[in-house]
Amino acid sequence: MMRKLLNFSRRQLHTIVSRDIIKPSSPTPSHLKTYNLSLFDQLAVNAYIPVVAFYPSSSIYKSSHDKTLDLKNSLSRTLNQYYPFAGKLAKSRPTTVDCSDDGVEFIEARNDCPLSDFLRHSEHEDFDKLFPHDLIWLKPSSKGHSHESGSTTPLFVQVNHFSCGGVAVAASLSHKIADASSCLNFYNHWATVTRSQHHEHDHDLSHINPVFIPYKTRNVNLPKNMPNRSQGDYLTRSVVFPNSKINELKAKVVSMTMEAGEPIMNPTRAECLTWLIHKCAVAAASKRNSGVFKPTGVCHAMNMRSNLVESLPETTVGNLYLVTEYPTVNESELTPSYIIGELRKRKKECRSITNAETALGMVADACSDHDAMFETAKRLDDYYIYSAITMFPTYGIDFGWGKPVKVTCGGVLKNFIIMMDTPSGDGIDVVMCLDRQDMKIIQNDPELLAFC
Question: Which of 161, 175, 189, 300 is catalytic?
Answer without folding.
Answer: 175
